[in-house]
Design a protein that fits this description.
The complex is a heterodimer. Chain A is an alpha/beta fold. Helix content of chain A is 36%, strand content 29%. Chain B is mostly helical. Chain B is elongated, with a radius of gyration of 19 Å. The chains are: A alpha/beta, B mainly alpha.
Chain lengths: 308, 161
């Protein structure tokens, strides 16, 4: 894998509290890397270290093969921090021009208009940012992060506080950025649905440690089934339901009309459940093995590490 | 250097767009300057002019003191108004953090921000000091001893800065 961000055993202590306890991961070119974790897990600290705002106590960090503290490397990174950092007294266009000048660019008019139009903000480009909604501000922050055509985007909860339609728009924009402009996105988010929809790789951090890391598809397989749903032709008799409940290895959960939901134990296959029901004379209309959702994976991992 | 200049320009523009802060700053500065100038004139210049043969070096000193106070007050009020509005607000809204994540160096950002806060106060202070110099000369000195201007008087206002 062609690595864009490489973190190796990064540790960070703030005061007496150890925020990061030696985290390691790699983000490849063209990835949309989801960085998940509960509040206070160390996500924002990691982002600050990635952007050079914090200095790690130990460990190795490379972005595009170089040290983050070099100004050339910062020119290749676009970012959105937890607060958008836009100037409210300035218009969207002025904000964009200001940042393009900071990155040492001139004649960026066309690029700015292209980005504002991509974010559907061109009509309001002459309005002050103070009059913008949260969703518009986040889209503008995303446009600003792209003004210097960076190779990597580091985004800290870009859809936080945005309404559902705004979230869909921002997600679509992120996907377009990766597909059309071949960029890499490091996305920190609380929104599991968002991560599930757009990320190909994830890392789950909790209390400063990476608990889960890898390709989302592989992780789903590794985490096992999200359950088995069986639809029967006729109604199940009460006596059979009692028998199902008594066999814990089948993991019978609930019955909804003619649908039975199972969460089988490790080692129990869908064929075992079908075999059992068929043996009792139940005619099966449909049997589906659900994949574990990210939410189930997330909940399972965090449950594992919860102190007893 | 170019980036520092950009940050200075942008910060000044942003500060000047804080209209209410700007109006309060100018009004408070003018009131304070006027009050101090009148008080110093009443307690220092008027008694000296009444002696019949005023000591020119003393008058120069008093004039310098008024110009110094004028600039000092302007800068003080300016710092109170804009340091909070510009720096604290920008820090809480993440503007400064965003700048720190760009290729700009941290020291250049802080220099630029400090200059941007300091400059409007210096300009208004110097302007008011010049008005005070001319007004006091025409009210008290020109009829009796002529126009008093010593380059060191002008320097006193910069010393305040």
């Amino acid at each position: 894998m062609n690595s864009v961000i490489s973190i190796e055993n990064i540790k960070k202590t703030l005061g007496s509290r150890e925020i990061l306890k030696g985290i390691s991961f790699t983000v490849g070119k063209g990835d949309i890397f989801g960085y998940l974790g509960p509040n206070g897990a160390g996500k924002t600290t990691t982002i600050r270290i990635l952007l050079g705002l914090f200095q790690a106590n130990s460990g190795k960090l490379d972005i595009l093969g170089q040290d983050i503290n070099l100004s050339q490397i910062r020119r290749k990174i676009g970012f959105i921090l937890d607060s958008d950092g836009l100037y409210e007294n300035m218009t969207a266009e002025e904000n964009m021009i200001y940042y393009s000048q900071i990155y040492g660019l001139s004649k960026t008019g066309e690029r700015i208009h292209e980005l504002l139009s991509m974010m559907d903000l061109e009509d309001r480009s002459k309005d002050k940012v103070g009059t913008y909604s949260r969703g518009m501000r986040q889209r503008l922050a995303l446009a600003r992060s792209l003004v210097h055509d960076p190779e990597v985007l580091i985004l800290d909860e870009p859809t936080a506080g945005v309404d559902p339609s705004g979230q869909i728009e921002i997600r679509q924009i992120m996907l377009d950025i990766v597909r059309k402009e071949n960029k890499t996105i490091f996305l920190s988010s609380h929104n599991l649905d968002e991560v599930q929809r757009i990320c190909n790789r994830i890392a789950l951090i909790d209390r400063g440690e990476i608990k889960l890391y890898g390709e989302l598809e592989n992780l789903r397989k590794k985490m096992g089934s999200g359950g088995v749903v069986i639809k029967t032709v006729q109604n199940i008799p009460e006596s059979l339901l009692t028998e199902l409940k008594s066999l814990s290895y089948l993991g019978f959960k609930e019955k909804k009309e003619r649908t039975l939901i199972f969460s089988p134990r490790e080692g129990t296959e869908i064929s075992d459940i079908i075999g059992f029901l068929s043996g009792r004379g139940v005619k099966i209309e449909e049997a589906v093995k659900k994949e574990a959702s990210l939410e189930e994976i997330y909940a399972a991992i965090l449950k594992e590490v919860e102190p007893s | 250097m170019r980036e520092t200049y950009l940050v200075i320009l942008n910060s000044i523009k942003n500060n000047l767009r804080l209209k209410i802060v700007l109006i309060v700053y100018i009004a408070v500065t003018i009131m304070c300057v006027l009050g101090v100038t009148i008080a110093l004139c009443i307690f220092l210049i008027v008694p000296e002019m009444k002696t019949g043969l005023p000591d020119k070096s003393k008058l120069e000193l008093y004039l310098g003191l008024i110009m110094y106070s004028t600039c000092f007050i302007s800068l003080g009020v300016n710092l109170n108004s804009f340091a909070f509005q510009s720096m604290t607000r920008e820090k809480s809204r993440g503007n400064i953090e965003s700048l720190l994540a760009t290729p700009l160096e941290a020291k250049n950002i802080w220099i630029a921000k400090s200059i941007a806060i300091f400059l409007p106060g210096l300009i208004l202070g110097e302007f008011l000091a010049l008005i005070a110099l001319i007004a006091i000369n025409y009210i008290y000195f020109v009829p009796a001893v002529g126009f008093i201007f010593n380059p060191w008087i002008a320097v006193s206002s910069f010393l305040a800065a």
